[in-house]
Specification:
Length: 123
């Protein structure tokens, strides 16, 4: 299953040593959203990275196979073994044009996936 939505809000922050990226179609009550987070707790890097969407009931770790980021979209491909947990095989968020936070989003993608097995393509 492929999820695609137009994002109006992109938020990147660190709280209690957890790196987090949030992307949604509304800043207050999104119908479609993605939350990617990384909490290094001594386990493997891949296990420390989780994703949650509006379709999943909880965060799913070690689920992201590939991530592609460009000025106009964020594409996340999900590991085959985790598709049922995430309820998606691919998630596409169309990003707001000329978003001044793009550089911060790019920085957080690199920081969250640093040292992981996830294939990253940032343009």
């Amino acid at each position: 299953m492929r999820i695609e939505f137009t994002a109006s809000t992109v938020s990147c922050y660190t709280e209690n040593d957890v790196l987090t990226i949030g992307v949604g179609d509304d800043p207050v009550s999104p119908k479609n959203y993605i939350i990617i987070s990384r909490l290094d707790d001594g386990g493997s890097v891949d296990d420390s990275i989780g994703i949650q969407t509006h379709l999943s009931e909880a965060e799913v770790s070690d689920a992201i196979k590939e991530i592609y980021l460009s000025l106009d979209k964020l594409i996340i491909k999900i590991e085959d073994r985790k598709k049922d947990d995430v309820h998606a095989s691919e998630i596409v968020a169309l990003l707001p044009r000329d978003d001044p936070g793009f550089d911060q989003l790019k920085k957080y993608v690199h920081e969250i996936f640093y040292g992981s097995s996830v294939h990253i393509n940032v343009n």
